[in-house]
Amino acid sequence: MQEVLKHLEAHFQAYLAELAEFVRIPSVSTDPAYAAEVAKAAHWVAQRLRRSGVPEVEILETPGHPVVYGAWETDPRRPTLLIYGHYDVQPPDPLERWQTPPFAPAIREVSGEQRLYARGVSDDKGPMLIPLLVTEAFQAVKGAPPINLKFLLEGEEEVGSRHLEAVVQAQLQRLKADFVLSADGAMWRPGVSSLNLSARGLVSLEFSLIGPSKDLHSGRHGGAILNPLVAMARLIASLHEASGRVAVEGFYDRVCEASPGERAAIQALPWEDGAYLAEIGAQGVYGEPGYSTLERQWIRPTLEVNGLWGGYTGPGGKTVIPSRAQAKLSCRLVPEQNPDEVRERLIQHLHRHCPPSMRLEIQAEPHGARPYALPSDHVGLRVARAVLRETEGQKPLEVRMGGTLPIANTFKEYLGLDTVFFSFSTGDEDFHAPNEFFRLERFRLGLEAWARYWWRLAHLEGLET
Amino acid sequence: MQEVLKHLEAHFQAYLAELAEFVRIPSVSTDPAYAAEVAKAAHWVAQRLRRSGVPEVEILETPGHPVVYGAWETDPRRPTLLIYGHYDVQPPDPLERWQTPPFAPAIREVSGEQRLYARGVSDDKGPMLIPLLVTEAFQAVKGAPPINLKFLLEGEEEVGSRHLEAVVQAQLQRLKADFVLSADGAMWRPGVSSLNLSARGLVSLEFSLIGPSKDLHSGRHGGAILNPLVAMARLIASLHEASGRVAVEGFYDRVCEASPGERAAIQALPWEDGAYLAEIGAQGVYGEPGYSTLERQWIRPTLEVNGLWGGYTGPGGKTVIPSRAQAKLSCRLVPEQNPDEVRERLIQHLHRHCPPSMRLEIQAEPHGARPYALPSDHVGLRVARAVLRETEGQKPLEVRMGGTLPIANTFKEYLGLDTVFFSFSTGDEDFHAPNEFFRLERFRLGLEAWARYWWRLAHLEGLET
Asked: Where in chain B is the domain with CATH 3.40.630.10?
């Protein structure tokens, strides 16, 4: 193992040069003008897998951008990891806010640390390249990695992984593994590694309240009929209690309360409401009584209004009573809430609270996302904890995600696999913004940690839980 | 007097031809492409006044379209009327929905009545032409009208009478009169004349609630802060009681309750909620308890939401907690409510109900409109009642307006004059829509009624009140 680490160390500058070469390819998945560049990046990735010794490499075409698949089955008695990452990147706009061009990687020292600046370097090309390089190191030193590896590296993560589900469904046999190790999914804070235990699910709903069949003059008709905007305001107001708790009947029915241990772990994390409020520019925290801010974001379900509109919204005034008021809602879900059931509860609530003079029209999105959670003693987490304690000299933070992890749901649903997120990018690295960067030290640490991870997984004895 | 009526009768076909000539001029005030046509219409009106014998005729230029002024002071001991009307018209779009071209007047028989179809024929060229023709008849038969006349005929009514206030302010002396008789302002229903006793005032306000300083991802932040859209919904919901009564403290303080007689008069009008709901396509009436629909529209104040918006309003979903929610409100006011005071009450309410974590930003429109009401025994109304009883054999309906009459406020504020509305167009004549028409019988009736009006005003004795 020491030899592998030495090999990684010795080749660090070469790896950095390779990462620079990788990020020079503007593989912007959302813009058709870059389609050839996305294809080029897929070929680059496939080539890199082959050079790392991966014997089975295939570019799986989709109606969109391809998925690069690789497999190196070394020993059927050893564990098998399915490694996930993506080679596509966000658009670089606004270009004028970049200090150096987005596809001309540049190393700069900022805040005492070396950073590589380029679009996609943190999300996800840097983190994604790590397992490919670690494979090469094992091949060079040991002839092969210590476990079985499968790679699923997609080119559409930044456009909602449009065709990933279809690819997974079509490749059920080839994707068999013990669990997924994801090179995507940034760590929580700079300076300390973290492991993500859960993500919330999602269900969305749009609805309209329709009063009169056409817009009316509010002079002539004002006072005589219920204004759909007032009806909408009341309906939205009925969704929560004043305290902040969701007032939809049955909303919390299946919510699995966090254990005292889980709550204590969240309580122990470094967090200050004051600093949080300063970051988002808000005046106060607010939410379900009895829970801290992190608990409200991570382990409690929520119902948010994402859009609300009706009537005249342009400059100046217009004396109108609109025919219709509209709203978009979404709920974040926690185990064991079910998106379909929550959607039903929500619709029932809207019907129950819709005034008799209003017609309710509901456009529910057919697909919700289930909440995702890893058991705290999942072997993939135990390995990760041990590795990070070893590389960083301290226990990683155990965090959760308020948002949704669609790929974790996809792998769970079709392959029955849990996903352990083991990216070495950090949430502050301006991915999706100008001047995206990746910390060189995290790149180095990632190479070491992934090598140790595979080694430990291959030799599971003695893992602390 | 009979000779004047005979003269009007005898010249009816000629007058009709004149009206047709007048509506051939496309005096669309809102579209700069028609500016020359608007000027042409002003000259046509000035010429018509001169031909009717009006000795003092002047085209008053404004930064927009001109006002045509005329004066015929016959006897300082007689009453003086200021006659108001407008010679500009709405745009004719959509052209394809006109059965005959908008500026090519055509007579058609519909529902057993003769109608003249053309843009502006009902609003307001037909009604406006009446006093000019009646002046001519008096001149022809008697040498002069029986009262003193002043004319103020504007070319910007359809664009909000932009420069009328300035003209009135500049002409205070020349506009001195006993009251205003308006040739604009349609009657309520076809088949029976009506007199308008009041119009509601108006005050408008726009405001924002601002939470975080930028839009936030509702996955990461959902549940942890108060969503501005939820705060807005609650604030809007707080403006009314569930019953429909306005909940703003002090809102009703100065409201002058209608007398039992006034309420009985409204109660006696032909009205069915069912027919009203069918007309507007709504499911039910709703409003301040204890009042009928017409009372809610005419003699009770109201607070309406004219616009409400925030967050993502495009197609599909976006998981956002917006930084800001916005709303536009307007109140209709009744005597003796004061727009400035109501605005203050409203602002106080918003501040009082704004949650501590939200910042309230108010953009109040500086100008409100006062409510307008004529005393029921106003001499101008008494004359009108007597004339209409005589010409139609029945008492006119006494109605009110839910909307605002800016010109009545202008004349009241600057000249201290009440305005009696005595138009012979009807609310169903599709002004502001394709196929605008004016009923020939109402044109004939208008000529007779205006002649009788002036005659009666000149000989006030024996008027029933």
From this structure: 2-198+371-458
